[in-house]
Design a protein that fits this description.
Blueprint: H1 2-7, H2 12-15, H3 18-35, E1 41-44, H4 47-56, E2 61-63, H5 74-84, E3 90-95, H6 96-102, H7 105-111, E4 117-122, H8 127-137, H9 152-159, E5 162-166, H10 169-182, E6 186-191, H11 201-207
Parallel strand pairs: 1-2, 1-3, 3-4, 4-6, 5-6
């Protein structure tokens, strides 16, 4: 039952929701990249993009934000994971708003040569709050949740890391390989749509 819940993917992700399909395809590429290495580490922050990542990605080692739902820890967690697993593939997922909490820990990672790959899901907004406000007040009353489409990859490049901006899953696949081969703390800035986070896979199986 547990394995079925983890593996389950609602058919609607692929057939009835093209915006969601884009996100799922991106995360499927990440999942394949991690599955190629036996000690790989998956780290996920909170927020809508983080919840999508937790629903779609598996790895031998997982570090997630847990019941607290707190955001901002992914990049420091990735640095810590590199200390524990010096040779593993380490990929962390975070939203664009989340980058503002600890993004400059890239400076720490670069100074101490602690490489990892972070994918920043960039929808130019605090999407978790947007979805809450839409649900409670309607689309016309969403307030204070917009961000600029900042190039977070360029921020990391300016600090001395690897950075690339991508718009589709093919470019994600290419950039993951480039980032891994660079052996630098890396940031892949992924343009995504604003999608509501999925329900848990276990709940989906019970209702399936």
């Amino acid at each position: 039952m547990v394995s079925s819940a983890i593996a389950y993917r609602p058919q609607s992700w692929w057939t009835r929701a093209p915006n969601i399909r884009h996100t799922v395809e991106v995360l499927s590429v990440v999942n394949a990249f991690l599955s190629e290495a036996p000690e790989s580490v998956f780290i996920s922050d909170g927020g809508e993009f983080g919840q999508w990542a937790q629903a779609c990605i598996s790895a031998p080692n997982r570090v997630i934000n847990g019941p607290s739902g707190v955001i901002g820890g992914a990049i420091p967690f990735a640095i810590g994971a590199r200390v524990v697993y010096p040779d593993a593939r380490i990929v962390c997922m975070l939203g664009d708003g989340t980058f503002g909490f600890s993004g400059f820990e890239y400076d720490t990672a670069i100074r101490y040569k602690m490489p990892f790959v972070a994918l920043v899901g960039n929808d130019a907004g605090w999407n978790a709050e947007i979805q809450i406000q839409i649900k409670q007040f309607g689309k016309e009353r969403v307030f204070g949740c917009e961000l600029l489409p900042t190039r977070y990859d360029e921020v990391v490049k300016a600090l001395g890391g690897f950075g690339r901006s991508v718009t589709n899953h093919v470019e994600v696949q290419e950039s993951l390989i480039e980032a891994w081969e660079s052996r630098l703390p890396s940031c892949i800035n992924v343009s995504i749509n604003r999608n509501t986070a999925p329900i848990s896979c276990a709940s989906a199986v019970r209702g399936h």
